[in-house]
Amino acid sequence: MSGFPESATIIGIVCKDGVVLAAEKRITYGSLIMSRVGKKVFKITNRIGITVAGLVADMQVLSKELEAMSRMYSMEQRRPIGVRSAANLLSNILYERKMMPFFSQTIIGGFDDGGPAIYTLDLMGSLLKDAYAAAGSGSEIALGTLERHFKEGIDVNEGKDLAVRAIKAAARRDTQSGEGIDVMVITDKGIDIFEESIT
Question: Where are the beta strands (DSSP E) in 25-169?
Fold first, then answer.
């Protein structure tokens, strides 16, 4: 898959005390920059978030649908949805639409009773668990930075710095990534969102 359906650079990192999700802000359509303030990181629950590369409408619909279904799960089960369950739910949403798919690559992450975790999903709903991940048009460059500097047992502050460094590396070479960076840090205390400069 290439071209505008994957335009973005998104990152997910598992840390000893939480998860870091990050994405740059540029919204493109082919070679045209449509917006410099796009949102690609979304809160799903108080301890689960997603970051999405792809078409803006698909990002927005996916995040809203997953948020609504996670709330219904919590009401029916009388407990918060776990990260793995939310990832499976998102996988099912994507698979059900495989004939008319959402053009998206997604990283979902969060903190639950099992600790911090991230999962990556493609547009068909394939689900992979990993310690770190990158997706989108700048992912190959970002992965080089992650593979070189990631260490097991880093804390969320180190994870945040690494995610920013990986996106900056991608933005230097990928014309579909740039402008600024949104970073979501998820711990057992909840979610914090930060904005970082790309320069």
Answer: 27-29, 32-35, 41-45, 48-54, 104-112, 115-121, 127-130, 132-136
Residue type at 151 in one-letter notation: K
Contact 73, 48 (CB under 8 A): no
What is the helix (H) or strand (E) element at residue 180, kind and residue range?
A: strand 180-187
DSSP 5: G
Q: Contact at 8 Å (CB) between 127 and 91?
A: yes
- Active-site option among 9, 28, 106, 120: 9
Instruction: Tell me which residue range forms the domain holding 55.
Output: 4-197
Q: What is the pLDDT along the chain (199 residues), one digit of tens a residue?
A: 334 456 799 999 999 999 999 999 999 887 888 899 999 999 999 999 999 999 889 999 999 999 999 999 999 999 999 999 999 999 999 999 999 999 999 999 999 999 999 999 999 999 999 999 999 999 999 999 999 999 999 999 999 999 999 999 999 999 889 999 999 999 999 999 999 998 7
Domain count, the chain: 1
The CATH number linked to 70 is 3.60.20.10
Contacts of 34 (CB under 8 A, 6+ apart): 27, 28
175 is annotated as an active-site residue: no
| Single pTM value for the model | 0.94
Q: Which two tokens stand for residue 47?
A: 């301890």
